[in-house]
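STRUCTURE REQUEST FORM
Protein name: Phosphoesterase RecJ domain-containing protein
Source organism: Thermosyntropha lipolytica DSM 11003
Requested output: structure tokens
Priority: standard
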Amino acid sequence: MPERCTLREIGEKLRAEDNYYIIGHIIPDGDCVGSLLGLYLGLTSLGKKAAMVLEDGVPDLYHFLAAVHTVKSSATPEGKDYNLIFLDCSDRERAGGSILASFSSPKYTFNIDHHATNDFFAHYNYVDPTASSTAEIVYNILDYMGVDIDSGIAEALYTGMLMDTGSFQYSNTRSSTLRIAAHLLEKGVDLDKLRINLWESKDKKEILLLSKALQSLEFSSHGKIAWMTLSYKDVESIGALGLHPEGIINYTHMIKGVEVGILFREISPGMVKIGFRSKGEVDVAALASKIGGGGHKKAAGASREGSLEEVKIQVLAMVEEVVK
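Status: completed
Returned output:
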């Protein structure tokens, strides 16, 4: 029976168990990676046995963070007495098919997340939709457990918070978020290192990908919806199939008058990933949920089978219904 835990309860459950495999979602973003590394470093500092697995691996953007090179893209659990921690996953399937197949019989599952659409799929669930990020939640758990936050943990969690709050610009930034950020700075976060690695060390392929996306920019007749399109062929021609920059979609909703921005990306022939951003009152998580996705009110996503044009027509018609 799934149990909805308080901060104290999840902290005590994690303290009582051992032998953890920590996993995140497919196409991991900064919050996923930062949370994963922060929790791993925190648990191992307490003498816990832990390993990290991400089906799609860690994007190059985050390779400067501590312990990142110990993250595996696949693994086989040692023995049967292991526990599985899902981070930043609104549902079980977000972890990826091969991960779920490999880790099919854990002793306990833990679900730590901040998505309002989370379906409480684990044995122990700690979900806080008011938190800015899963990284913020991980900080609170480690703080409760008495972990001594060092610079490696601090930089991982700060990065996660930074990326999910738009550098503390989005409305999910609370006063408690900034207090935690301040504490992490005191623990040794090197802002120059973060700035250079996150924003001033772009791969040339990422800039070419952005160029392709901007060339495809289109608007609805009323100007309230903007969208960009990246075909599989275009991405393949750049050699950027493994790149999933988080910032490209932001160019859609930074335009005056646009309320909803969308990025359509064909991740394989016949499969399209859709990203949504909102800066008005439109709840894009509700839109994404209609096509099997999820996320937050201002930022959400989904994947849908079909040709790029078919998916665009379907999704744009759906968005037009709520943006008039």
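Reviewer notes: The longest helix spans residues 30-45. The first strand starts at residue 3 and ends at 4.
Form closed.
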